[in-house]
Amino acid sequence: MIIGVPKEIKNNENRVALTPAGVTELRKHGHTVYVQAEAGKGSGFSDEQYTQAGASILPTIEEVYGIAEMIIKVKEPIESEYPLIKENQLLFTYFHFASSEPLTHAMIERKAVCLAYETVEKTDRSLPLLVPMSEVAGRMAIQEGAKYLEKPMGGFGILLGGVAGVKPANVLVLGGGIVGTQSAKMAAGLGANVTIMDISLARLRYLEDIMPANVDTVMSNEYNIRELIQGANLIIGGVLIPGAKAPSLITRDMLKLMKPGTVMVDVAIDQGGCFETSKATTHEDPIYEVDGVVHYCVANMPGAVPYTSTLALTNATLPYALQLANQGWKQACSTNEELRKGLNVVHGKVVFKGVAEAWHLPYTDVKELF
Ligand SMILES: NC(=O)C1=CN([C@@H]2O[C@H](COP(=O)(O)OP(=O)(O)OC[C@H]3O[C@@H](n4cnc5c(N)ncnc54)[C@H](O)[C@@H]3O)[C@@H](O)[C@H]2O)C=CC1
Ligand SMILES: CC(=O)C(=O)O
Ligand SMILES: [Mg+2]
């Protein structure tokens, strides 16, 4: 198969979807790999390393999209990429369709095969291609939160761990999945008072068991959220309903209950965000304020730590990319249910329920494709 790796063009997106090691693997299986010039630069991989691994370098993004049967990338295509996508072309990347109606319509129009990293799902319901980036973003959320809690950055001016004789900060984590767990661990390690909320009692039981003593667990419901946000200094949004729009757990009216200078990091922004007042921001301009509350809503947080993120992401994606290249998407998805769950928009049809529901579009059962 002919595989293309474009350079990411989203703001401060420094990850790349394939490392030179991945090129070597694909070449070993007889595939041809084209990498856009400087695609790996932000992650520390030179064009020369890709060439030595057996890839050919193409100078422009147009040439990469023009030649490839499968495009492997990191972030969803942005507007300037839409016209480059060809009918039947396989796109293997994050899409987060439920947070972007224009992207959904564009991919329907292009009649491409859109296989989304974030909805590939194992039989135990885990999301193998989301987990590594959620680990990164969960950990980063505390770093970023701590930074914006500093007074000169617009925050309340509290140190997460406090010092002798002064109480630590209160960190509230909504969603106790991968993001939530990593955030809680980092915040607890810094000495903060942490509360994790989730709707799954089983998950709360597990977290209660493994977390240190400065982490509490509380059932997530509106009543409890209203109460806990009043004492919180830093709030992390890490809820997910896979492939669907995130629920708005903190509504605009609730901001008035919070202390001025409270910081909210909405990691779930890639699925539309779990705070009503969230809107996607960039690494260049990451925060804004509503009713005295600082919002951080960067949709590609791991892009800022590309060394860690590229390696963590490609460790997880490469085995699936190999299957797709070896068998073609149709064969690979018909035999492998994990990959089949990644199909979102195929040949103009929406085959993922959460996406069809988000934009009131007709839904086609994925099985009709085979
Ligand atoms: N902004 C960014 O750069 C990045 C964003 N993400 C996003 O972070 C979000 C979370 O991802 P993961 O932690 O991997 O998901 P996950 O599936 O591991 O965890 C989500 C948790 O939310 C819980 N939940 C669902 N509804 C809830 C509610 N009403 N109240 C409280 N908890 C609720 C679930 O029970 C589950 O435990 C996703 O939207 C993901 O795409 C992930 C990586 C990077
Ligand atoms: C998951 C995601 O959206 C990211 O890593 O950018
Ligand atoms: Mg405890």
TrEMBL record:
InterPro entries: Ala_DH, Ala_DH/PNT_CS2, AlaDH/PNT_CS1, AlaDH/PNT_N, AlaDH/PNT_NAD(H)-bd, NAD(P)-bd_dom_sf. Residues 149-297 form the Alanine dehydrogenase/pyridine nucleotide transhydrogenase NAD(H)-binding domain. It catalyses: L-alanine + NAD(+) + H2O = pyruvate + NH4(+) + NADH + H(+). One of its GO terms (molecular function) is alanine dehydrogenase activity. GO terms for cellular component: plasma membrane. Its EC number is 1.4.1.1. Residues 4-137 form the Alanine dehydrogenase/pyridine nucleotide transhydrogenase N-terminal domain. It is an enzyme of class 1 (oxidoreductase). GO terms for biological process: L-alanine catabolic process. Substrate binds at R15, K75. Keywords: NAD, Nucleotide-binding, Oxidoreductase. The active site is at H96 (proton donor/acceptor), D270 (proton donor/acceptor). NAD(+) binds at S134, D198, R203, S220, V239, L240, V267, A268, I269, D270, V298, A299, N300, M301. PANTHER family: ALANINE DEHYDROGENASE. Belongs to the AlaDH/PNT family. This is Alanine dehydrogenase. It comes from Dyadobacter jiangsuensis. The lineage of its organism: Bacteria, Pseudomonadati, Bacteroidota, Cytophagia, Cytophagales.
